[in-house]
Amino acid sequence: MQLTDYVKKDTIFLNCQAQSRAELFSKVSDKLLNEGYVKKGFLDFINHREDNYPTGLQLQNYTVAIPHGDPQFINKPFVAVITLTKPITMRRMDDAIIKLPVDTLFTLGLTNGSDHLDLLKEIMKLLQTDSFVQQIKNCTNKDEVETVIRVAEKKRKENSDD
């Protein structure tokens, strides 16, 4: 399972401007709905899920979030790669009391629960390389994002046994 199979040009959102998580989720959900990736109800679900199960991650030098939808609200499987011009506040996955300034998100929308775990593992492996997050943040267009992901996955596969 590869991230490149799920990231499409119309699921890449660079240099988004949002004052809050709710505003960002609304903007991205509207675009995903218009492109046919999600069904009505996706926005409410993803906000509710994030309220109850935060997805912010503190990495060594970065903070990211990996929100995910529910298969019942997904038409076509996707991963949305989102970068922000200014961080928004999200709560930490392993300690919901701690708030994190997040400016890079990978939003999962999958139609199959078992794919969800495999893809999450793949993303986590890529995120363990600080240069991956920095390269995504430095992208100025959607082609660059696709290239960064493709190269990172290729390198990871070359350096692992799985």
Automatic annotation (TrEMBL):
Classification via Pfam families: PTS_EIIA_2 (PF00359)
Gene3D superfamilies: Mannitol-specific EII, Chain A
Keyword Cell membrane: no
Keywords: Sugar transport, Transport
Record InterPro entries: PTrfase/Anion_transptr (IPR016152), PTS_EIIA_type-2_dom (IPR002178), PTS_SugarTrans_NitroReg (IPR051541)
Domain PTS EIIA type-2: 5-152
CDD domains: PTS_IIA_fru
PANTHER family, alphabetized: PHOSPHOTRANSFERASE SYSTEM MANNITOL_FRUCTOSE-SPECIFIC IIA DOMAIN CONTAINING PROTEIN (PTHR47738:SF3), PTS SYSTEM FRUCTOSE-LIKE EIIA COMPONENT-RELATED (PTHR47738)
Protein name listed in UniProt: PTS sugar transporter subunit IIA
Organism (species): Lactobacillus helsingborgensis
